[in-house]
Design brief:
The chain has about 600 residues and is an alpha/beta fold. It has two domains: about 220 residues, 3-Layer(aba) Sandwich (Rossmann fold), CATH 3.40.50; about 230 residues, FAD/NAD(P)-binding domain, CATH 3.50.50. It is built from 16 helices and 28 strands. The strands form six sheets. It has an eight-stranded mixed sheet, sandwiched between helices. Strands 19-13-12-20-28-27 form a six-stranded mixed sheet. The protein is globular, with a radius of gyration of 25 Å.
Length: about 600
């Protein structure tokens, strides 16, 4: 949701002050030196980065602020680690707008190599977990916009070091509440460290009570003291992630899982029955990337908002040639649409850079400036073109037992349920057909995607891509049907007759079968043991269940059920599954996961007495 951006005040040309908290972001003329000393040097990161393990390291920060700490950390990691990945997670309630960041970064030309891609990828100012990638995806910044008291409980995983860089406790007490320290401690690896410029007694006592060993040490410059803390080391070891992963399916879901796993250093083999990537439902030459907005904070809206931002950032980071953030216009098609769009616009939950309700060249509706289109096959091929990924095409796997790997991921769309252990999945097939149209003199002027009871792209090499139909139908041959082309033309001429399309303009099309679910949410995560869940949670049938943990099929994961939302959903799903396999922090709020987990359907049916 929309956030209140930082309210800044410049004085003397170089002192940056928060008007809201009456405190400065960094010492004038000494910002990089102070940050390096307090957060990098006192966490002993130069030595630790040089000796980092192959799986990399994780840094967490409370208070992204000007981004200076991240830029310095990225620079130091780049110096010491040519291969290993770095995950940097930062929480910020009042983010600085990108234009102000650009002015700030001008003070530090030595950090331009890291500042420039940060500015290019900087996300819209809406709540959520945003993902930015640097140095050929070696550094991953997860920028969490929201109140730390709400975001920190949603953060999973453990971290090697923490930066506590909020404004001083006297100016911003909410950032230093006592209840936050146990949450930080629970997310700190044994031997992990923490530093902060603050030397307040309440901060030191809170950290100590949470389990840290705390010391007051010399501060930087005119600041006499600061705090450094360490979580006592134990015999605990971070579990080694599975090293060999096989992914069945080379469409958007499979390629996304493979890419995310490969980025974490895992060896991946992708197997597909077709002769190449994206040969089935993911093969449309052009598809839309846009957020699925909901009036309430529903799991559906939260997931696809995160997914939209994730795919958009990924396409930019991969420098995908087909990615065109041209914007999308959602036209009012009925009175209900009009009321819904007006309600969304009036809610104040999204900034104008994200969504605005207005009269457009195509008609009245909701304009999404950050949305756009790309080529799914190109995205799939780009993700699979990775040194850690091996592809095996024209091969169909009929028995999972034949696979000798540490983890197996099923990303086969409707075919995900062909195996005995997944036959229970409530996947339903929906046929869809796109229509390709030769541009007319009138349609050549279209510069944005127009959506109504379908949609049409701007001309791409002289061709518009319109679609798609939606039919309840079991998978069959993806043949083209003239009746579907006529249906698409009727829709276009109903809402945009000025474009002047006729049957003579149809130059082709493409059909496929989407995999959908009863609740319209995808299925992402470890595969449950159906029979075991039925037994363990049998008490749900009479409302007296006491079990809290189910049993899962060993090392088997699922990513499917995206319906017509593969582009804003599958790349994020791939990252989720890769994090589950590797043990990395999840890329979405933890509270969202029950709405994505495969076992949700078993538990719901037990509660409803259907099984």
């Amino acid at each position: 949701m929309a956030l209140k951006p930082a309210h800044l005040q410049w004085s003397d040309g170089s002192t940056l002050r928060s008007v809201d908290f009456d405190d400065i972001y960094f010492q004038p003329q000494q910002g990089p030196e102070e940050s390096y000393y307090v957060f990098l040097e006192q966490n002993r990161l130069p030595q630790r980065f040089a000796a980092a393990p192959a799986e990399g390291m994780r840094i967490a920060e409370l208070g992204f602020g000007s981004g200076l700490n991240f830029l310095l950390t990225a620079q130091l990691w780049h110096k010491h680690q040519p291969v290993a990945p770095l995950l940097y997670v930062s929480i910020e309630k009042h983010p600085i707008p990108v234009d102000d960041l650009r002015r700030i970064f001008a003070f530090w030309p030595e950090l331009r190599e890291y500042a420039a891609p940060l500015l290019e990828q900087y996300p819209p100012l809406v709540e959520g977990f945003h993902h930015l990638r640097f140095l050929d995806n070696k550094i991953h910044l997860m920028l969490c916009f929201g109140d730390v008291a709400e975001v920190l409980p949603e953060l999973t995983g453990t971290f090697d070091a923490w930066y506590l860089d909020g404004f001083s406790p006297a100016k911003n007490p909410a950032m230093w509440e006592e209840k936050l320290f146990p949450l930080i401690a629970a997310r700190t690896k044994p031997g992990g460290t923490l530093t902060t410029f603050s030397s307040a007694g309440a901060v030191r006592r809170g950290l100590q009570a949470a389990g840290f060993t705390v010391e007051k040490t010399a501060g930087f410059g005119c600041k006499r003291d600061m705090t450094a803390a360490k979580m006592p080391a134990t015999a605990w070891h971070h579990p080694s992630p599975q090293k060999r992963v096989v992914v069945l399916g080379a469409g958007l879901a499979g390629a996304s899982v493979a890419f995310a796993c490969a980025q974490k250093g895992l060896d991946v083999t992708v197997i597909d029955r077709q002769s190449g990537a994206a040969q089935e439902t993911s093969g449309n030459p052009v598809s839309v990337v846009y957020p699925k907005l909901t009036i309430d904070k529903s799991p559906l809206g939260i997931f696809y908002q995160h997914g939209f931002c994730f795919t958009r950032a990924l396409a930019a980071a991969l420098k995908l040639p087909s990615w065109n953030p041209c914007g999308v216009i959602n036209l009012n098609t009925c009175d209900e649409d009009e009321r819904r769009h007006q309600t969304l616009a009036a809610s104040g939950d999204w900034p104008e850079e994200y969504m605005v309700y207005e009269e457009t060249e195509a008609g009245m509706g909701l304009r999404l400036p950050l949305a756009g289109y790309l080529s799914p096959p190109e995205l799939c091929r780009r993700m699979l073109d990775h040194p850690k990924i091996k592809t095996v095409f024209s091969t169909e796997v009929s028995a999972l037992e034949t696979l000798d790997y540490d983890a197996v991921v099923l990303a086969l769309g409707n075919n995900t349920k062909i195996f005995p252990v997944t036959a229970w999945l409530p996947l339903h097939s929906r046929r869809g057909q796109m229509t390709y149209l030769k541009a007319t003199p009138q349609s050549e002027k279209v510069t944005r995607i127009i959506c109504h009871e379908g949609g049409i792209s701007p001309p791409v090499n002289g061709i518009h891509y319109a679609g798609a139909t939606f039919q309840h139908e079991e998978p069959g041959l993806p043949d083209l049907r003239d009746c579907d082309h006529r249906e698409m033309l009727a829709r276009l001429n109903k809402y945009n007759p000025e474009l002047g399309f006729t049957a003579a303009d149809v130059v082709g099309g493409r059909a496929g079968y989407r995999a959908t679910t009863p609740d319209h949410m995808p299925i992402i995560g470890p595969c449950p043991d159906y029979a075991a869940f039925m037994e363990i949670f049998a008490g749900l049938r009479i409302g007296k269940n006491t079990a809290t943990e189910g049993k899962f099929v060993d090392r088997l994961y699922i990513a499917t059920g995206f319906g017509g939302q593969g582009l804003p959903g599958a790349p994020l799903a791939g990252e989720i599954v890769a994090c589950q396999i590797s043990g990395d922090p999840l890329p979405v709020p933890a509270s969202l996961m029950p709405y994505l987990a495969p076992e949700r359907f078993i538990l719901r049916d037990l509660k409803r007495g259907k099984i």
